[in-house]
Amino acid sequence: MSSVQPHTSPQSEDRPHGSVERNSMSTVFARPAVRRGAAVVGAGVAALVLWAGSGGDPVVRAADGGEQHVGAAAVVVTAVLAGLAGWALLTVLERVTRRAFRIWLAVATTVFLLSLLPAAGAAVGAHSVGTLLGLHTIVFAVLVAGFRRTRVR
Question: Rounded to the nearest 10 degrees, what angle do helices 32-53 and 126-148 cross at?
């Protein structure tokens, strides 16, 4: 005589009764590293969209006294490098203090505010000033919003 056993999937045996299975994509995106990477990429994309939407090519005074156009590559690379530097600092702070995000936010805000001075000072014309200030602001905002959602508790 054989007994009939209910069919169970391997996942249902591993989960507590009544729990909801999460799909693999939401599980992956829940990881802080993935979310922080998305924030860094998002900062680059947001900066590029703002740059393109403003007409592109803000002009700054170069060190030699001439003028230099700020192109799309410079905008994206700078935004991504700023994001990676912020990510590295936040990761280090998380290893040494329980108030990592709060400290990181203070440092990030200070760096952001200080970055506005040379951006505004080197820009040639009101359009370039507005574009550069907007680029700095959008990168800061995207990184803060993206990194805030990844706090390690």
Answer: 160
Both tokens of residue 26?
């939401």
Residue 20: predicted pLDDT = 47
Under 8 Å between Cβ of 142 and 45 = no
pLDDT, tens digit, 9 for 90 and up, residues 37-89: 999 999 999 999 999 999 988 999 988 889 999 999 999 999 999 999 999 99
- Buried (b) or exposed (e) across 88-98, using 16+ Cβ within 10 A? ebbeebbeeee
CA angle 126, 131, 134 (to 5 degrees): 125
Closest among 67, 60, 112, 63 to 86, alpha carbons compared: 112
Q: Which amino acid is at 9?
A: S
pLDDT value of position 108: 98
Closest to 101 (Cα-Cα) out of 39, 28, 29, 46: 39
